[in-house]
Design goal:
single chain, mainly beta, Immunoglobulin-like, 4-stranded antiparallel sheet, 23 strands, rod-shaped
Amino acid sequence: DPQGLSCVWSNGSTGPTTVLDSAGIYSVICTDSNGCTASDTIELLAVTPYIAGLDADTTVCSGTTLTICAPAGPVSYTWSNGDTSNCATFSNSGIYSLLTQDSLGCMYHDTIEVIHENAPLSAFVLDTSNCPIIRFTDQSTGFPSAWSWDFGDGATDTTQNPAHTYASNGTYTVLATASNFCGIDSATTTITIACLVGRPAPMDAALLVYPNPGNGLFHLASELNISGETTLKAWDINGRLVREQQIRSLGTPFASVLDLRGETPGIYLIRLHTEQGSWFAKVRLLE
């Protein structure tokens, strides 16, 4: 502070220095002890802060490479994985950070978490202690978000841990399907219901399916004496119901045809459901 120097700023402050906290053009007039004056102006610009603006934490399927881009603007980018452009590529799960610097030297920081998720592996256990009410508990891994159950007697469910009441003694194949946005998987088990008094189990008779493997037309035959309402269903390996047909012409011996032409080659589970019980078979559809 030179002796005898007085200054007046346009923001109202006095003295050789001042504090400016908003954008604008400011002036100062200073007078020394001899009465000499000098003036000057300065323009203060307000810089809009740059926001790194990374996306929200992201979940992708395992094996997927994810590219994340920050908005353009800074003159330098430094990602924690070593990338130095505004875009970075990640193939593993983790928390990644970005440090940017603009032309004025201002620095900004942001982070993002990348999570790789697997397709589920379907698994379940069942509790038969309260037969004929059977409780099913999902034990699938891979964080499934949807479930589909076929209890083998024509009934289905889409809850995670269902309970089902069987109306007849017999042996049933339960098909459980678990899925998430990364994939789908199915598991099966066979359950025998024998706790219902006065309700006979289905006859122990073979269901013949031929030709198997086949090109689409599968013939079903049996010596069963089938009567009443009869349904034939087929599911693909992912648990998707691809065929359902009512069989109206019944007799002994039993005969019918399942047409899978037009479906994707692979393994299919078929079920013949009658008032006497249900019979299952696997068929392979050739290319």
